[in-house]
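User: Fold this one for me? It's Branched-chain-amino-acid aminotransferase.
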Amino acid sequence: MSQSLNFHVTRSDRPRSAEERARILEKPGFGVHFTDHMVAVRWDKDGGWHDAEVRPYGPIALDPAAAVLHYGQEIFEGIKAYRHADGSVWTFRPDANGRRLQRSAARLALPQLPVEVFVESLKQMIAVDKDWVSDAEEASLYFRPFMIGDEAFLGVRGAHQASYYVIASPAGPYFAKGVAPVAIWLSTDFARAAKGGTGAAKCGGNYAASLLPQQQAQAQGCSQVLFLDPVEGRYLEELGGMNVFLVYGKRNTLVTPALSGSILEGITRESILQLARDRGMTVEERQVTIDEWKQGVASGDITEVFACGTAAVITPIGQLKGEGFSVGDLEAPAGEVTLSLRRELTDIQYGRLPDRHGWMLRLDA
Ligand SMILES: *Cc1c(COP(=O)(O)O)cnc(C)c1O
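Assistant: Here's what I get for Branched-chain-amino-acid aminotransferase.
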């Protein structure tokens, strides 16, 4: 099977002016504005991947019987482009995202996009929309690659037609006023995923199921939800869209829940584990109970807690709240380990530190 496709490029005849783009990049928010172009690639059961194109950003026409609209056959990725000081544009570990998209596809009975085509799709976006990658401090261009089953058929089986798209949205610094700890809500009414389910796949359905618990968290003054394992309701899994870490300061140890089949394999998670090992920290991937968190914070053994994912990189967790309890101090500043891991990772991504693991790929050359 051919691993590469030729992209047919149709430039927008109404791209935003330089002034309009500058106005958007000054205050981009997150996921609100989109660049002038998108990538689309078609797949069907007989012909495989074909008709790769870059075209003006705009609505997608779907048959009302398209599989994605009825059975939620959708997967996605999240990956950023970073502008370095010399003006070049880079991305972080795209092959890892490409392989994860393939694993998600397998679980959702969608076709495997070759990793080479995934990486090429990001390069194609930068070839037309490079000017949307801001050079402001901690700004980036967030790519949202996604795939849908779009065969018009109401029978319940994997669609025989699918489409892969990439759209891109400029993102400002996640923490506009410095990295600030957040409060999170322990959900005991709901689980995110179960072993054998779709928790390890990056699919829209997982997010749909997390919206109600997320609303409950917000009603409690928390910005995110923490989910426990669905069987015993004791073991930490992750937040709605971020993995979680505990820091045992005195033991120089970093602890995160082991991948259980229901936890999403975050690329930020894996990168942080590597950076921690590199600096001589002890790294433990194992089961962690919610009692260990509560008692560890109370005894002072757990000195920091943080969440991680591509969008926010690392978010310090100041407080954990749940039905009838609260641990931690939201007013305390972010911890040292949290901040220095965050700094090291972003320094690599923005080209301020050597890329000793070969994680960075240039997109504009
Ligand atoms: C995307 C995602 C993460 C973080 O993954 P990264 O590769 O680090 O961005 C964590 N949990 C869930 C549920 C996710 O969807």
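One thing worth pointing out: The mean pLDDT is 96.
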